[in-house]
Amino acid sequence: DVKVTQSSRYLVKRTGEKVFLECVQDMDHENMFWYRQDPGLGLRLIYFSYDVKMKEKGDIPEGYSVSREKKERFSLILESASTNQTSMYLCATKRPERTDTQYFGPGTRLTVL
Amino acid sequence: GDSVTQMEGPVTLSEEAFLTINCTYTATGYPSLFWYVQYPGEGLQLLLKATKADDKGSNKGFEATYRKETTSFHLEKGSVQVSDSAVYFCALSDRGLTGGGNKLTFGTGTQLKVEL
Fold it and tell me: Which whole number is the average pLDDT over A70-85?
């Protein structure tokens, strides 16, 4: 079974803080993704990575950056957290094949005060 | 660009009722189509998928058929249970991004509540 873990289930931070969200997968998948989930908006792609040290912007990259130094780990960074970044953050992973399934982590609910 | 439209919820049903959650899509080419389910407090997990026209995906009593002519992928179940209460997301996978990392485009989700 694919296992995708995220560093925290719940996180509370203050405006202006630097926030790190980490995602680790154990299936040697090349592709990793960060989404945010908001009511009424579904899931929106922030960034993705198709290989170590490679990254591409998704639909809503503003205010975020990412890091992928090792194949199994993909980090999402909020350089200066703002209240509009309060959301559920979901990490996903998959193999490169077009029809392959994305496997999701349990999510991190981030609240920025 | 690609888009997915699914019916708004919440949908409230009695146990053993028939379920349909509508999903239509807009995409260029021939996307793969997915239904994901999110149980309370958990991440998303794949429920079923179909990769080409007229394919039927099925799992746990749920079914959906890839209809290219109507650009639809409606989710159905003949008899729902309380344990099916969750949020259901329809999604499509585009042709491919850099390096083959296919982005999923999601609908907004439909919450299903099943009552005794």
Answer: 96
